[in-house]
Amino acid sequence: DQYLEISTSLPKDSSLYGFGENSQPNGIKLVPNEPYTLFTEDVSAFKLNTDLYGSHPVYMDLRNVRGKSYAHSVLLLNSNGMDVLYRGGSLTYKVIGGVFDFYFFAGPSPLNVVDQYTSLIGRPAPMPYWSLFHQCRWGYRNVSVLEEVVDNYQKAKIPLDVIWNDADYMDGYKDFTLDLVNFPHAKLLAFLDRIHKMGMKYVVINDPGIGVNASYGVYQRGMANDVFIKYEGKPFLAQMWPGPVYFPDFLNPKTVSWWGDEIRRFHELVPIDGLWIDMNEVSNFCSGLCTIPEGKQCPSGGEPGVTCCLDCKNITNTRWDDPPYKINATGNKAPLGFKTIPTSAYHYNGVREYDAHSIYGFSEAISTNKALLDVQGKRPFILSRSTFVGSGQYAAHWTGDNQGTWQSLQVSISTMLNFGIFGVPMVGSDICGFFPPTPEELCNRWIEVGAFYPFSRDHADYYAPRKELYQWGTVAESARNALGMRYKLLPFLYTLNYEAHMTGAPIARPLFFSFPDYTECYGLSKQFLLGSSLMISPVLEQGKTQVEALFPSGSWYHIFDMTQVVYSKNGKRVTLLAPLNVVNVHLYQNTILPMQQGGLNSKEARTTPFSLVVTFPARSSEGYATGKLFLDDDELPEMKLGNGQSTYVDFYASVSFALRQGLVIERVIVLGLEGTGQVSEIHLNGSPISNETKRIEVSSKEQKYVVVSEDKGESKSFMVELKGLEILVDKDFNISWKMASTNGAH
Question: CB within 10 Å: which end of the chain, N or C, has fewer?
Fold first, then answer.
């Protein structure tokens, strides 16, 4: 019952992905003979090739057989610690408990695999529309600092939806309390009323450790309800930011009720819009069996620190604390109870921590999701550091404590793509790095990547210099550029959120999800897709003003300058210009992309007119394009159709477009048209546009080929734009025109 081993052989040309959470310096594709250990730990994300905050014992296998791709996935549903040895031609599990409970997902495409996987573990949670860009810092010490940050974003004209507080708002780092000196209740409520009227939101941190303090109401009620994890019949004592703490046992139904009541009480005090549950691996500043020291203050006060100040002794006298097989915990075979709960402690109904350790954050996310839903009656937003199989059904995830380094920026892409495979699509890393320092050039490049993370948040450590995006002039320019585009793409991103909720489809995807037969992209970890067709090719190295990007076969249109097109016949690498404030984002052919005009927050942005960008294969006389759009009241707990408050639209080429709610389409852009660019006889719904009461502007521009295509010949492709339309989005419409071809025909 403490050691299970099983092996399987693999074709040497299989490409494997998964087994997390860890930071993989060599990219998303698993590398033979690198360590893959699964056991949730409070280990910073910049530590490479070691077990981190989450446990996901699942992998995807992608094979190419005579030019045809086949994907499948395997889940070992087991919460015990394990080492997974991948040797290229074989895979071996070494598990220290539980049972072999394998699930196989037959694919055959990567999207099929994730659909099948999330149908078992739970579909990803619906996210509110406002959850798409955030600013946070440990060190926002009072309400005035929060006001300053919000005002500076407004002055810099950088979009922002959510302002966060780390533990600064608490009284002595105690959960569900308010520091009334630095966050006077009336002043905080006035600030929240102001930002709520603007359409902005407020999220705060919450750690699982409950301070052991006889005058602390949360602790008193927890003791009265007997909600804490036990060791030898007593609540297990640990240390976190408030000092001595007990940990709630979220496997206990009484804990779930107590937790919900504490969230209700706090929400009545401070009308928060979401919760950030941190340190839930679970993290402990001490190891072993501890007592509160007599005659000294613990902690001593002053600046926050992680030094253990309890009196502790090691626990090694049981086979659960010192098992016969030592997994490679924290990368050096650390004892299982190192800086966490001892594995011989007990949860509700006799469940041993040895078996339940890696599901602590998962169980807390379930309880927190239920509590927020009960309290607010709205769609909950929860961000969790620790995750397990199924966590995506309840929470978003950020990748933890990274560094302001180029390597952390690069690794963030692989981790983000892995979590899409894990069924946690709302994921991202701390933009500009959590730990100090971050060079200005790196912060420029990071926002150009982070603006396209599904979960996009700028965050920094207590001891770090200020890193808000307006702190540097060049970074502010990059932020206005990249985040400006993100906010124009909000309807597209929100539709991807809906697709994720319905089918598990990742929001951010490796290129092989859309091009599974193209083996060149199997190991690609420096570019990624949003959805099936929007490709981000960022600069990830210091001093570079060009980027080499892989373009699979087809036509790719630059989303910032739609006159630019890259045509690739069989797939090619192309060197793209990328000055400091420029990120290369390309839209694939056969796509209809819904966009709006942006704004300084999502409330403002989502009321602006729509544009539809239609991409046909360049210079093709025939083509099709499809797109999707989902809109709803994002405060509704459920994201679904048929409730009278949601709309789903399938777009097909230029044949039919629909939506509702009185919003209008003001502009249509069509890319990749063959001909001379001379447009005539334009009709809207069968009538010449000259009959329209409002002047409609028509323009055409020849598209510039970044790389001359292999078979370009003499033909040209054009972009045609119609502006000044006032078409209700819920009405079918038809636009037609004539364009002279190169041989004189129309």
Answer: N
Which string of DSSP letters, residue by residue, matches 440-458? Answer: HHHHHHHHHHHTTSSS-EE
What would the two tokens of residue 366 be?
Answer: 């379930």
The answer for residues whose C-beta is within 8 angstroms of residue 535's C-beta and 6 or more apart is 511, 527, 528, 529, 549, 556, 585, 586, 587, 588
Domain assignment present for residue 562? The answer is yes
Judge whether 540 and 508 are in contact, CB under 8 Å: no
Structure confidence at residue 661 (pLDDT): 54
Q: Which of 72, 79, 83, 85 is nearest to 30 (CA)?
A: 85
- What pLDDT is stored for residue 744 in this prediction? 55
d(CA 432, CA 696): 43
Residue type, 156: A
The pLDDT averaged over each successive group of 10 residues in the chain (746 residues) is: 97 95 96 95 94 98 96 98 97 98 98 98 98 97 98 98 98 97 98 98 98 97 98 97 97 98 98 98 97 90 85 89 95 94 97 98 98 97 98 98 97 98 98 95 98 98 94 98 98 98 98 98 98 98 98 98 95 98 97 97 96 90 90 94 92 53 82 85 86 77 78 74 84 83 58
Return the CATH number at 583: 2.60.40.1180
Q: Let me know: does 558 contact 567? Beta carbons within 8 Å.
A: no
Domain end call among 61, 89, 121: 121
Is 97 within a domain? yes
Burial of 91 (0-12, 13-18, 19+ CB in 10 A): buried
Q: pTM higher than 0.90 for the full model?
A: yes
Q: Is residue 9 part of a domain?
A: yes
Token representation of residue 592 = 């209809």
Q: How many domains does the chain have?
A: 2
| The length of the chain, given as a count of residues | 746
Pull the structure tokens for residue 593: 């992309």
User: What's the half-sphere exposure (Cβ side, CA atoms, 13 Å) at 132?
Assistant: 33
Query: What is the domain range of residue 103?
Result: 4-121
Active site residues: 278, 281, 401
Q: In degrees to the nearest 10, what's the CA dihedral of 346, 352, 354, 356?
A: -100
